[in-house]
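Re: that chain you flagged

S.,

Sorry for the slow reply, it's been a week of failed gels. I finally had a moment to sit down with the sequence you sent. For the record, here it is as I used it:
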Amino acid sequence: MQHSSGEKDRLGDKLHDVEAAREDQWARQHDAELLKQIRERPVKLNCPKCGMQLAARKSGPVVLQSCSKEHGAWVTVDQLNVVVKNVAANNHSTRSRR
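Prediction finished late last night. Pasting the structure tokens below so you have them in one place:
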């Protein structure tokens, strides 16, 4: 069976489109994995009061950055979102038990 030049071009175009879509999907997944790794990496910060480097401490699902001289503890926006979600989930489960 012989294919016309136009059919070969369309088939080639479709194969190219499929390959490009697979590459795009791989890139999106790879980028998502890299972003997840970056977000999970502890952020190095200094205490605004004494200048000492804050130490990363895990408290439940949240990573806190705390001052060894007890001047306070800080969280990143991502970690604050974890706290907010946990509080909202606890409030919802407490209300549903009433």
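What I noticed first: The first strand starts at residue 55 and ends at 59.

Talk soon,
D.
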